[in-house]
Amino acid sequence: MKRTLLAWTAAGVSSLLAGQAAASGILVARFGGEHGHPTTDNPTAMYYNPAGLALGFGTRLYLDGNFAWRSFVYTRDPNAIDNTQDPGFQGAYTPSGDGVAANSGESKLFNILASPFAAVVTDFGVKGLGVGLGFYVPFGGQSTWDTVDAGPTTNGGAAKYPGAEDGPQRWWVIEGTLRSLYVTGAAAYEIPDLNLSFGLGVNLVMSEINTIRARNPEGNDNLVVGTPNGDQIKEGRTLVDVSSNDLSLALGVIWRPNDDWWVGVSYQSQPGFGENTLKGKAEVVTGAADAKGDKLPAEITQAMPDVIRAGVRWRPTHEDEIRLFGTYARWSVLKEQCVLNTDAPNHSCATGVGSLGIIPRYWEDAIEVRAGYSRWLTPGVELFGGAGFDQTAIPDTTLEPSLFDANKASFSVGARFELLEKSLAVATSYTQVIYFAPDIAPRGKASGATESDIASIGIRNEARTPDSAGTYDQKIGFLNLNVQYTF
């Protein structure tokens, strides 16, 4: 059950955010630092509010990068394990003692990640016009978890529980990638007499999921099957590699009642305008019965949120600017992520026929609020900072290590410099994210049952997954660097 049983084509699902700072329930890396918001006039407007493209001038080349570090420690509660039995049990189970140790305890990661945003915007010499093309990754991330001690060995020297080296978080993630790359074409125009800008963006969304996780067909975490001839390995693996191309739209408006105020609202639609399907392949290893694994055609169905943003900017003096903005993300559309073997006759998420894993999410709508301030020391030197609160979209009942989030605060500080007679602008900032992570109690077991009680928390049997109870401790910080050249 070691990773070498599966081709190394993955680099780790962590969260839709993974190691990058987020907004409104693990939504997006903060492109543009504190200057990425729904009243911005820089090229990141094509994501935050395309109407902002009309507020600039000339031709602008823009390159932005977020460079993040992420530390995560998950400690699984032994009471979360399904069907713990004394050694010698006849049937599928986790042996008490060393089996429980192999199926619980601490797992860690420390990853360094980077996320780019690149764009070109021009007015074609027409005042109030802005037309741009860019690419960026607003959804996604990756992670790689540390291996751990595999524990006891057999008389032949092999690991007694060979899957244990991948850590107790392996039932949700070992390694993989979950990402959506956007290629956006956008245009905006400001009506001069009204100081009112309108913008529209069309996004090509190229999504991929590539992940390895431990899995048993029954959706539990049994390590072995007890037989009269001794225990046999039960724990399996699933590798999924799927992708899709979808369209989405962005709409926005910005009103400038005078030279000191900007008010903006924008809407970003769901990729695919609803549920989307990613297609590709899967490889499944089902314990000792199939050590080589079956390669199958596969698909994943899921739904990403649509997003509403609103904000204001105010310049009380020529040297000061105050910003306030917020985000509402409709994560409640994400009920389940359903992985199916498309070769299976009558495969269906509803019935579970052909299921390679139906992952319960049942996420909730989430908001972010943020305030920022800038002070110009000179016309070409700006110091800025910001602080915000971001609500998690993930309920405690479906929180788990592969897609982790919690309520959090973030704090940023940075500077921007204009050079070469203001044709070149360089900015940098650092953001620290502080998570208020909950401790998750075990689901418990129904009377007479040995598996965790999923019915009591509204999860159907076809979507059974192991209990992810335990403690979570995540820390994230990131450096933003961006440069803009105007001619």
Your description of this structure?
With 487 residues, the protein is mostly beta strands. The protein has a single domain (3-482), classed as Porin, CATH 2.40.160.60. Helices cover 2% and strands 52% of the residues. The chain contains two helices and 23 strands. The protein has helices spanning 45-48, 98-102, and strands spanning 59-76, 84-85, 91-95, 105-122, 129-144, 175-191, 196-215, 224-227, 230-233, 236-258, 261-268, 275-285, 294-303, 307-317, 320-329, 336-341, 355-360, 366-378, 381-390, 408-419, 424-435, 439-440, 470-486. The strands form two sheets. A 14-stranded antiparallel β-barrel has the order 1-4-5-6-7-10-11-14-15-18-19-20-21-23. A hairpin with a 2-residue loop joins strand 8 and strand 9. The longest helix has 5 residues, at 98-102. 50% of the residues are buried. Residues 1-25 have low confidence and may be disordered.
Rg is 25 Å
Helix content: under 10%
CATH class: Mainly Beta
The CATH architecture would be: Beta Barrel
- Strand portion: over 45%
Work out the number of β strands.
23
Major sheet size, sense and barrel closure: 14 strands, antiparallel, barrel
Structural class: mainly beta
* Mean pLDDT across every amino acid position: 90
What are the secondary-structure elements, in order, as H or E? HEEEHEEEEEEEEEEEEEEEEEEEE
Q: Within the CATH hierarchy, at the fold level, what is the topology?
A: Porin
CATH fourth-tier homologous superfamily: Outer membrane protein transport protein (OMPP1/FadL/TodX)
End-to-end separation: 58 Å
**Low-pLDDT stretches:** 1-25
The outline comes out as elongated
Put simply, the count of helices is: 2
Strand order of the largest sheet: 1-4-5-6-7-10-11-14-15-18-19-20-21-23
The total tally of domains equals 1
